[in-house]
Amino acid sequence: MRPPTPRFRRPNGRVTTAAIAGLLALAVATPASSNSTPGPDARERVHEYEVTGPRTAAQRTAVAATGASVDAVRRDSIVITADAGQAERVRRMGYLLRVLPGPPDRGDGRKPTPFDFPPADAKYHNYKEAMAEIDADIAAYPSLMSKQVIGKSYEGRDIIAVKITGSAKAAGAAQPGAAREADGEKAAAKPEVLFTAHQHAREHLTVEMALYLLKEFGSQYGKDARVTKMVDSRVIWVVPDLNPDGGEYDIASGSYRSWRKNRQPNNGSSSRGTDLNRNWDYKWGCCGGSSGSTGSETYRGSGPESAPEVKVVSDFVRSRVVNGKQQIKAAIDFHTYSELVLWPFGWTYDDTAPGMTQDERDAFAKVGTSMARSNGYTPEQSSDLYITDGTIDDWLWGNQKIFAYTFEMYPSSAGAGGFYPPDEVIDRETARNRDAVLQLLENADCMYRSIGKEQQYCT
Question: β-pairing, 403-409 with 340-343?
């Protein structure tokens, strides 16, 4: 139904089907350091490979069942991150593997600074710099923006949500209990839209995307009619960094480590970290779409929401239910790489399934395809790539009925930079999504308008 394109396409880590879930037993643990400071790590034994041969979603799903993460997809090959044991199991399937170069060395001849990006990529923001940038934006646009700490990461870093609306001061930030109810009632007439970033540690361009949105909504308010209308008529939430611990660890040595998960220890294992985008409480572990091995790149955690970062954001989303009604209507979760616009479900190949009607699927596809036309990405249902479970989009829709998308950002291939594109592309590739973001905001009050059924669903 959706023919593959002859270029790399990297999903947000889609994994196996129930029919071949038994292959998960082949996944082997990869020990990881429990230290969050610079130093040697078991990641030295994990590599990216180009795997020639897999052509169908089922074949890609079978590869992912080894515990490897599928990083990119093209017509007749995929890119995976795997340890030696997982790579050998893929070879036994009859596929050809080629080791790809590791993360780029962008030291530019200068001495690296611990917990910072390589000197040649200095335009990227580490956690401290990103928080300072956000505080500066809020100070510059106090009538539009407010910030709240919605929880802590495993290592104690603040996870924040920035609220943007033309009446931010009047409505206030969401609060527990009665204060939250009052806030929700004041803002109830405004559809709310959520933008999240950086579930996977090595995907630093997504933090830059979140920072771009704050700057754009603030600086263009009152100047650009389209931005002004959306800020006045919507409540916009930006959670710029879901995985600050993993992001800091990825650059802890002053060079890139290609780290994916959070930094939470796993009981009874030397391997560290949970794949946050397998830990959400909808179809968690249901369908062979994640790994139960602590050493896997797609380890789903000991239980749904066992990762504190996932619990924090889940609780925040649930806090937006006011008088039994979810105020958040639409969302985008930003990832890299492959230039894709994806929508649920990931846990099943079926376009419609329990929890999604044909009209709902059609609205997802119509808006998703339109957004993809504006940014040049490829639109498709997540499971067209391969099966996954416990992802944020499936949870936001399946549990909260929020029209949720994943954007896989630049580049289109590993050869163009993979997870580590140079900082020269930041401005271009974040601005590239401006129109798509505005389209989602404009549709958020009634996604069914896109399929001509506004009267049926939105009156």
Answer: antiparallel
Looking at residue 109, what is its pLDDT? 78
How many CB atoms lie under 10 A from the CB of residue 116? 18
Question: Cβ of 340: how many Cβ atoms within 10 Å?
Answer: 27
Encoded amino acid at 334, one letter: F
Q: Give the chain's length.
A: 459
Q: How far apart are CA 376 and CA 338, in angstroms?
A: 11
pLDDT of residue 314: 98
CATH topology of domain 18-99: Alpha-Beta Plaits (3.30.70)
The residues of the chain scoring below 70 in pLDDT are 1-44, 168-188
Going by C-alpha positions, the residue among 80, 77, 75 that lies closest to residue 65 is 80
Q: What is the dihedral of CA 5, 11, 15, 19, to 10 degrees?
A: -40
For residue 408, indicate whether it is catalytic.
yes
Strand partners, 145: 164
Q: Domain 119-457: state its class.
A: alpha beta
- Give yes or no for a contact between 124 and 118, defined as CB atoms under 8 angstroms apart: no
Q: Quick one: pLDDT at residue 335?
A: 98
- Find the catalytic residue in 133, 203, 305, 408: 408
- To the question of pTM greater than 0.85 for the whole model, the response is yes
Residue 278 CA: distances (Å) to CA of 86, 110, 292, 343: 19, 38, 10, 16
Every domain of the chain with CATH number 3.30.70 lies at: 18-99
